[in-house]
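Obj: model holo form, ligand = zinc ion.
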Amino acid sequence: MRRSTRRRQDAPNLPRRPVEDRTLGRVFGGKYRPSTFLTLTLDTYGRVDKHGAALDPDSYDYRRAARDAIHFPKLLDRFWQNTRRCVGWDVQYFGTVEPQKRGAPHFHAAIRGTIPRSELRAITAATYHQVWWPPHDEIVYSGDRLPRWDHHHRAFVDPQTREPLPTWDEATDPDTLTTPAHTVVFGPQVHVKGILGGSEEAGRHIGYLTKYLTKSVGQAAGLDESATARQREHARRLAAELAVTPCSPRCPIWLLYGIEPKGVRPGTTPGHCKGKAHKPEHLGIAGRRVLVSRKWSNKSLSDHRAERTAFVRQLLDRAGVQPAYAVDDGPFEWQTTKPGDTDVPPRTVLLLHAINQRSRWRADYDAAVLATIDAPPDDRSATGPGDAPEDRRAA
Ligand SMILES: [Zn+2]
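Output (holo structure tokens):
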């Protein structure tokens, strides 16, 4: 019960407005509805040179850098929760997580609508995420002295005493765990810019959102052949810290700290996690790099599906491709089938039918594209300018 009281501290002291059912910001001058471009960064961990490498690696706080990177997505979630509560409407955004040169993730987002800069700054400063994980400051087991699986206990045990290690649930019991292992906050740098759609500035800021998406995290941070010796050392230190920082309650690295993670098996190797967060080239950024709010495009998946169908039909029409099969638009009456239903074809037949149908559709579509290669169909009427199923795919 203590936990619920404690967790309530997570609601920061911000003005709260009831959240209205709207996803757009204010209109200015009767017609302008600017958008907001926002950049959120993490705190400083020590001074860096112009390439982002620590000037003094011994005093640079790699431990906090590694933990902050791993928990950054949670901090962002909390930021959007707080923002919606504070501004009072269902704020929609399209954002990307990118590494800075120093290796820390930062976040660029386009927000539909305007939020005053002072408000965004206040929300950023008040947002934090507490990590209620067991303490993991001191490595307990290393080298040849590692916990081992014990068949009798069906648990990992201490190699000398043969006592089972505390399980995740035991170690995170609210009576045992009274302080968070880590707290993530944003850094003081918050970049906020109001932008009008269609302007040169809008194009430039959209560029920031997409600039690095085709590159790996490591490449985006500038860790290529041209990296300086100091950059390499910086990357090495950060990677070393990420290699001993647990990434989730199921991470086998917990065994080094004397905790049995969730979901262990006899074959679990202490300290070896396949999670992306620990890979040097990922810099602790394990989750998705494109984060899109659910109502960003204001369309449901069925809307997108209907638009794609309309687009394909328009294309086939234009190309004069006559589908060699009847397209039945219904209306249909749907019924749930039961096991043993004699009307239901065997599964293999259904699968082969579905594959056959798909390949016929594809062939017709390809033929139509070839036939209209000089005259692209007016896709705007079907899908609207540029917004699209891509939004969803990114989500
Ligand atoms: Zn892990």
